[in-house]
Amino acid sequence: MKKRPGARVSTIRHMDRRCRVCGGELREFVDLGRQPTANGFLRPDETDGEYFFRLAAAACADCAMAQLVDEVPQERRYHGGYRYHASGSAGHRKHFEENALRLLETELAGPDPFVVEIGCNDGVMLSTIARAGVRHLGVEPSANVAELARAKGVEVLTEFFDERTAAGVRARHGAADVVFGANTICHIAHVASVFRGIDALLAPGGVFVFEEPYLGTVVERTAFDQIYDEHVFYFSVTSVRAMARRFGFELVDAERIPLHGGEIRYTLARPGARVPSPAVEELLAEERERGLSEPGTLDRFRGRVERIRDELVALLRDLRAQGRRVVGYGAPGKSTTVTNYCGIGPDLIPFVCDSTPSKQGHLVPGSHLPVRPPEAFADPYPDYAVLFAWNHADEIMAKERAFRESGGRWILYVPEVRIV
């Protein structure tokens, strides 16, 4: 891939082909090329010196953990200008309110309960906990979204979570009945320190609950755009059980949830503290039957990814040749992966509409597609719209019914390229 003028590849932590969890040998299964940080949205005058790294994923031959080959330093990924706001979707707000209510009715129903959320973002989950008057703490390294959480009445510690942070929280607040994380634990490369922190912080009968993108969904749906710098790990039930055991915990529940196209909520406890749910063995058996972590399965995934790239670019070029107007809808981190991997620039998609105010007026990292507010989508409606936020397809299509009524068509590329 040609290097853009003024672009640079900054310092990254190169792996020596050893697993971050167990030290086993890694086998690379997909290379998505030279990529920027997924949520590093730029002002038009900030493109010189843009950060790039090689985005490739590998799987451990010993514990089956899928993970990035190269690690972007966490300080570059999470900072005071972080532009992902978890409350931006109505579906997300509903999901995390239900999460909070469920915890309040179960794990947090005892006397003076305490919950810690790793990566609370803008307080989308803990705000419900706060309104219930339950002791809580969000540990959030990005100062700007931490302030949004505080504005909702959430107590936040602006730090990265590790064993040192956890020890400080324990000393100040006492043991936690629940440590929770959503779309966060897979982002943290220093996993051994995280588990030592959870061990220090969690009450003897407490639980560590986290929900994350599922490798099975990524592979089955060819959702390759779920792979980007923030997602260091791609969990399966098999790899999470191995990770839990390695760090002195037991996987006691695994539950499918619909968020982001299909995730799994994992519950870990100290060995013997809880009776494991039958769902754990059922999902383990399903992964064995599917050969989820087998090299052949992952090689076939790579082949499908390459086919989607070729078909999507061919479709966009054909529509351009026909004089059709195509724009993008949604600028999640996934849009960075797909536009950079496919080489999609403003010549094919002149702009992307997104409802996040902090992204508007900026450029999608690497591909430099301008991000405009939602009002631009109907001014006038395009002929086609590439739905980058495909995990919110039902919500978006219902909201944009007038686009279809005007003759507009949606372009989707997960699990295959198609027009709807």
UniProtKB/TrEMBL annotation:
The chain positions of domain C-methyltransferase read 258-415
Q: What species is this protein from?
A: Planomonospora sphaerica
The UniProt keywords, alphabetically, are:
Methyltransferase, Transferase
The molecular function GO annotations come to: methyltransferase activity
Does the keyword Methyltransferase belong to this entry?
yes
Instruction: Note one Pfam family from the annotation.
Output: Methyltransf_13
Q: Which residues form a coiled coil?
A: none
Q: Which residues belong to any copy of the Methyltransferase putative zinc binding domain?
A: 19-76
Q: Name one GO biological process term.
A: methylation
Q: Which InterPro entries match?
A: Methyltransf_Zn-bd_dom_put (IPR013630), Methyltransf_Zn-bd_dom_put_sf (IPR038576), MeTrfase_14 (IPR013691), SAM-dependent_MTases_sf (IPR029063)
Full protein name: SAM-dependent methyltransferase
Q: Has keyword Transferase? A: yes
